[in-house]
Amino acid sequence: MAFTTAVGFGRPAARRTVVATLIVLAGIISYFSVELRPAGAAIAAWWPAAGLGAAALLVSRGTRLLAATGILFAAMAANTLAGREWGLTVGYGIGNAVEAWVVAWILTRGRAAARLDGVSDIARFLVACIVGSGVFSAIGGVTAFIVADRPLEVAFFSLLASHFSALVVVLPLFVLSPRTHGRVHPVEVVAQVAVLALITWFVFSPTSDLPIAYLPLIALLWAAFRLPAVVVAAEILVLATAATILTVLGGGPFAPFIATGERTTVLLLQGFLIVHALAALFVSGARNDWGRALVRVEAQEELLRGGIVNAESGIVIAEHTDDSRLVIRGINRAALAALGLESAPPEWFEAGIPLVPGQPVLGNRGLDALLRSGEAGEAELTRDDRRFDAQVSTRPLSRGTAIVTIVMSDVTRRQEREDAVVQSLVRLRDLNQQKDDFIASVSHELRTPVTAIMGFSEQLADEALGAQAQQAADVIDRNARRLADVIEDVLELSRLTGSATIRRAASEFDLRDLIELAAEDARGLYPARQIVIETSLPDEPVPVVLVRQDVQRVIANLLSNAVKFSPVGGTVTVGLGPAGDGVEITIGDRGPGIPAEHLPHVWERFYRIQDESHRDAPGTGLGLPIVKALVDERLRGRITLEPQPTGTGTLARVLLPRETFPAPPTASVPVMPQASGE
User: Fold this and answer.
1) What is the mean pLDDT of residues 353-381?
2) What's the pLDDT score for residue 612?
């Protein structure tokens, strides 16, 4: 994490201390910069305080106006103590504050903190330094022109070089991250520092005036490419300081120009600093980008390699080079097995396989022909008793090569799986048929004794019995009828789901009369509960051509559910009306209703809602599945259950066509929804 980021997100007290320290240092360095300027000059040769001021604002976070004010007063104090004119002091102080604010604003605009991690960040940093130093140069140039009568263009460019070089040399030390994208041996660090120091001394020593000013760039680029970026920033600052001091002492290639005027020497030195700083920063940023890209590529390669190695299909990834060679980049075990190999020869991955006519490539004639042609296509491979389909695809690259991908599918294994699935389906169908046959057989066997029990219970009801015997007879009759209903439901469900369903013939009848008869029967289901059944039927007959028994069973089951779940003295409503080309039957109750989370499950076999309002109601959970199957499969209609508009109870809507003819029976097992909620 960079210095400005670490301090900026740290404790407020520590952050304020660092900001104050940087401002004080900027003031001190400003004083010495003014003191060391050439005699009579209105402009200092170099202004390192610009970098410190921008760093102070980057650290401040949210208090930049106060920090900029501190820079204003620090610069004014330094200029005043150095004996500058009051006008220059005020103008330069304002320029320093505005410059630091502009640089900090550009570097952090749209970001939580300033960073110099990649080339794009370095480019943004360069823009910030150009704009910031340009703003200061404009303010300072006008000030020098008005107060000190200096030429405007000379003052502007002198200040621009001084501040821009200071920003690119000093500020990176506070913004660059200390992390590195690789381990560097300490010996290499010591060697690089020693080489840079020796080259700097050789170029700028007082006894040297050779024109080799840019020789230190060699060692600096070494650091930029290998060492952490923060080390590079520190070396840039040390190089700038050493080159400036040694040049003032008369050493180096820039010192001879002092005789012709200090301004030439200053500009040459500033250019030297700017070139070295920017070159090192951009190389370091590119190295960081390359390191991050390498990490992403390695992660993707590892993911791809794992997928290829563990893939069930054979996969070969190769490069078709521009010299007609096929270099294998990846091959998994399944592909080796399809090719009849234990392992791939090492030369496949190094020199590659020559794509020469008549010479084998991977050992299969059809596949080799595709690879030599460089075209996409399919080939068939046979290995022992197994057959493979190989699909070849080619993607050209910009540098004259192409990526070739071969996917080998085991056709034999795929056929074995398909055969296994078909056999499983046949077994399931047989088991389902056996289940239906068993249910039908057992139900028929149960029906005979239950019918006998019901007959004798009816005879007992006609006899004069004592209270205890009469109670026993009632219990026998009630449970016998309940068992008969269960048997009938099971038989009906078996008929609906059987592969040889017997379909009754449709006939014309009056649906209104059928509903009235069903409502009358429902009134006698639970006479002690005094359930009121209200019908809302048309005045005229409603003729339909349907299977009467199926419609009757649907209405009877729905009415039975509605009466069963209605409270004592409750009301059940039955309605009939037109609906498009068909008719709609509605049956509603005022019972507890069906909770929304149970609605998707009420059509499942034996499904019952397990709460206090539903648990005690008699039933097997087969009524609604039978209704659903009859409406969907036999009557070709649609049924829905929904809450009553009043919020209490359930409303069933049955949409039926006015005329339907049963479809011919099929040998397949129909898939039908199952079970009951009410």
Assistant:
1) 88
2) 55
Q: From residue 153, give the alpha-carbon distance in Å to each of 150, 269, 274.
A: 9, 19, 20
Q: Is 638 helix (H, G, I), strand (E, B) or coil?
A: strand
The tokens for 76 are: 């004014």
pLDDT digits (tens, 9 = 90+) for 259-295: 666 677 777 888 888 888 888 888 888 887 887 777 6
Say how many C-beta atoms besides its own lie within 10 A of residue 519's C-beta: 19
Secondary structure (DSSP) of 36-52: TSPTT-SS-S--THHHH
**Chain length of the chain:** 678
Euclidean distance between CA atoms 179 and 592, whole angstroms: 68
The token duo for 623 is: 């009524």
Smallest Cα–Cα separation from 562: which of 593, 535, 607? 593
Taking CB atoms within 8 Å and a gap of at least 24, the contacts of 490-495 are 490/439, 490/443, 490/622, 491/439, 491/440, 491/443, 491/444, 491/447, 492/553, 492/626, 493/439, 493/605, 493/622, 493/625, 493/626, 493/629, 494/436, 494/439, 494/440, 494/443, 495/440
172 close to 56: Cβ distance less than 8 angstroms: no
- Give the C-alpha separation, 324 to 472, whole Å: 98
Domains of the chain: which residue ranges? 1-291, 308-414, 507-657
Mean pLDDT of 429-440: 76
DSSP code per residue over 280-296: HHHHHHHHHHHHHHHHH
Q: pLDDT tens digits, residue range 161-197?
A: 888 888 888 888 888 766 555 567 888 889 989 999 9
Q: Which helix (H) or strand (E) covers residue 386, if one does?
A: strand 386-396
Percent of the chain past pLDDT 70, that is, above it, reads 84
Q: Is-same-fold flag (308-414; 507-657)?
A: no
Edge to edge, what strands does the sheet with 386-396 contain? 353-354, 325-331, 314-320, 402-410, 386-396, 377-383
Range list of H helices, 2-47: 3-8, 12-35
SS3 640: strand
The predicted structure's pLDDT at residue 496: 66
The CATH number corresponding to 308-414 among 2.40.10.220, 1.20.58.100, 3.30.450.20, 3.40.630.30 equals 3.30.450.20
- Please state the φ and ψ torsions of residue 331, each to the nearest 5 degrees: -150, 135
Tell me how far the alpha carbon of residue 611 is from its chain's centroid. Answer: 41
Question: For the whole model, what pTM was predicted?
Answer: 0.49
pLDDT of residue 264: 75
Burial letters 177-205, b for 16+ CB under 10 A, else e: beebeeeeeeeeeeebbebbbebbeebbe
User: Out of 3.30.1340.30, 3.40.50.150, 3.30.565.10, 3.60.21.10, which CATH number does the structure's domain 507-657 have?
Assistant: 3.30.565.10
